[in-house]
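4.2 Preliminary Data

To establish feasibility before requesting continued support, the project team ran the inverse folding procedure on a target of 240 residues. The structure was first converted into the token representation described in Section 3, and no sequence information of any kind was made available to the design step. The complete token record follows.
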């Protein structure tokens, strides 16, 4: 049997001669036992490894217990076992807090897992509709709009800052915030800003409100319309 140098185990942090990461240890091994429980298949090997893989990852041509597993198949099984661990870690991360895909990938990479396994898990989750940048962006936009009156540009900018791809950020911002709703939010923000201006008849007051609205992510046209609509009417005192 050919062996490679042991690699540090992502879970324990220790260098382990029985690490089950793909391609790091023996190039072939004998299959001793196969058992299925709790939605996983466990493959016991004669080198001391036990690979936990998803049932759909078990190949149709898996050798019978007592037979040798070919090197290529062994690498595939180790990668499948790594994907199983990665998936478990990703769900644990999301259970605590939602993150954009780039941040999740970074967090899992920090644990020592391979990019191939991480990308495969994240792509599978997206294809099954379990989680994706689109899902993250939807949740982020709804949370943001629940607390602040902002425009689409603001949402896109914030999502891009969190490393959500530009196309997804723009798509979700348009889905969550239609033109009519954006106008309503611009009015709300303009009304709030006007209340903080003492002299609403000052020639510079309107410009201040427009700049404020643009800072909140409303385009120039929307900002101008809202600022003018929500400008307080001038009150005059009749001395008669």
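Position-by-position output of the design step:
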């Amino acid at each position: 049997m050919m062996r490679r140098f042991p690699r540090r185990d992502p879970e324990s942090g220790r260098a382990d001669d029985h690490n089950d990461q793909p391609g790091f240890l023996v190039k072939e091994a004998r299959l001793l036992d196969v058992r299925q429980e709790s939605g996983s298949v466990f493959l016991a090997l004669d080198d001391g490894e036990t690979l936990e893989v998803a049932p759909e990852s078990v190949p149709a041509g898996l050798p019978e217990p007592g037979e040798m597993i070919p090197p290529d198949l062994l690498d595939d099984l180790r990668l499948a076992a790594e994907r199983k661990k990665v998936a478990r870690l990703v769900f644990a991360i999301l259970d605590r807090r939602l993150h954009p895909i780039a941040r999740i990938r970074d967090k899992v990479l920090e644990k020592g897992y391979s990019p191939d396994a991480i990308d495969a898990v994240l792509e599978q989750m997206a294809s099954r509709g379990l989680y994706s940048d689109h899902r993250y962006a939807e949740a982020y936009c709804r949370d943001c709009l629940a607390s602040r009156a902002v425009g689409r540009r603001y949402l896109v900018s914030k999502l891009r800052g969190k490393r959500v791809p530009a196309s997804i950020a723009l798509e979700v911002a348009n889905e969550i915030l239609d033109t009519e709703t954006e106008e309503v939010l611009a009015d709300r923000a303009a009304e709030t800003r006007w209340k903080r201006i003492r002299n609403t008849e000052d020639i510079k007051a309107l410009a201040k409100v427009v700049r404020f609205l643009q800072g909140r992510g409303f385009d120039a046209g929307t900002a101008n319309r809202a600022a003018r609509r929500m400008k307080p009417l001038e009150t005059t005192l009749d001395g008669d």
